[in-house]
Sequence to fold (663 residues):
Amino acid sequence: MLVINYQLNIRVIPKARNNTFYMPLKNKVAAITSFFLVSYTTIAQAQSLVTDSLQQVLKTAGNHEKPVVMAELARATVEKNIDASIANAGKALIMAKENADAGATAFCYATMGYLLMQKNQQHRASLFIDSAVQIAAKSKNNVLVSFAWLRKGWLELVKGNNEKAMSGLLKAEQLIQYADGRRAFSYKTLINHYIASIYAYGSDTLKQRKYAYDCLSAAKQSLYPDDLLLGYMTLGHSFFSAFEKNRSRRVLLDSSMVYYRIALATYRHNAEKILLQSNASATALNIANSYFKYYPPAYKDSANNYVNMALDIARRTNGKEIIANCYGILSEYALRDGSPKKAEQYLLTGISELKDSAPGVAITRSRLMLGLANVAEKSGDKAKALDYYKKYIDYYSKVFDSQKLATVQQLEEEYQSVLKENEIARLRERADFNKQLNWLYVAIGSASIILLGLLLSSYHYKLKASQQQKQLTEQEKEEIKLLAQLQQAEARRLMLEKQEAELQVSLREKEHAHAKAQQELLQDRTEWLEKELLAGSLKIEEKNAILELLKEKSRKADSPAVARQMGRIINQNLRMDKSIDEQQVISQSHPGFFNALQQQAENSLTRLDLKYCSYILMGLDTKEIANRLGVEPKSIRMARYRLKQKLKLAKDDDLDQFIGRVG
Fold:
């Protein structure tokens, strides 16, 4: 079938020609029922909404977030103006470097690599993405680091290195395994989409479907319309791959058509928010091709509807591969209907639409021209077939020349890159040599400093030793001087001890003499007191006898007044005698009491004072003392005041307590 010849083998990951999200077109399409087209907002409007939103975010973003948003804005405008996108990505990269943010720098490098791949600059793209991975190792922002590894895996997938691609993608998935946030889930959507594409084409349809489901699950959590469209498209293609592996299971084709349709429904409801709308054109073309390959001719109208949808979007996104395949399907339907002229017209229209496209579309035009040659040959017009075939050869030659030129340019780029790398390597070697030379200078300088330090240390040690020797000599002199002073002090101490001993002997002698004198005084006093006591006793006995006699006589007296007066005198004398008796008893019982009082008062106490003290010691109060002495209490209080003064007591001291302590 001609459509197979016209279709390009567009993989899930574009080889620097198409958008990242293109799904395979060849042998990857299915349909069940018709899908009614609706009026879609133009791609320019959709991109404007997204870019305006990013512009608003860019205005309020912080310094570290701004480069990332600017790089996302550059990627968002890739279908509109690739050169402007690359320029903006370059500005974002410069800003990230100025901020010294490893995560943002890695993100900008990875984005620049992706954009360069869209311009077939694979070598430069590889350098940028490799730089992204290297710089990402310095960042702790796992989400941005994951994006660098995601692009690394994507690039290896474009190159056809599936093992390296899988390694990079799994590394990216591991970094954001537990991460939250819409950006992280968006990256998970891409990662699972790319891994699913590795297992496509019948290599392992079960694993392809598993990662397709993971892709859709992540897309539902990111909530970005682009991710949802991609998730449903990836799952639809996983069922289609399984159907092509086992075409007897028609239910797989039905399932693929269901998810393809959901993808287009997502596009329809979010047309103004879809950034990369070329995914929708690829999905519509897949459905149209499925109708053509696996459905009866009665589904031609449905196929045409999806072809028109794919053409409408592809014309706005510059999807030259999609346009070529759309006209290829229309041409095949015309041939199936027996209308070679119409088939030829479709192909000519396709070539006409691609006429003003970029030079890279020449290979697509050559395939359409080959289709025209086949149509003319089938219709029996050999001359026209030959003419078309010559044009095909001409286009293919241009393709070959452009490929050669591209190869030469790429080789030139690689050569210049190698020269730059060699220059960088030479500069690095020179820098390493200078570094080693600097280290040598540092080593020599360090050795000189160490040697100087050793010399200074030796000089300092000798100087210190000399000072210590001098100090030792001075210390010895000081010790000798101190020893002499110590000997003198010892001699003085011995002399003082001797004097002290002599003084002690003298004091002992004086104390002995004083004690002897006191003893003699006490003995004399005792003898005197005994005599005094004896005399007093005799006197009292005589007095008592007289008084008794007077008392008896007074009883016989005639005058009562005289009798009472005599009785009063007698009683008073008796009380005085009783007091004398009590005082004598106290003196006999407490011989040291009066001595202690006299010593405290410096021998200033009279006999009456001693009598007051005796009564106080006996516990008598002021009134009782006054009765015994026959005086007024006021006199006793005055006497107590004089006693405190003689005994040198303070105003607040208690006389009774003091006498009690002495007694």
About this structure: Residues 2-380 form a domain with the Serine Threonine Protein Phosphatase 5, Tetratricopeptide repeat fold (CATH 1.25.40.10). The radius of gyration is 65 Å.
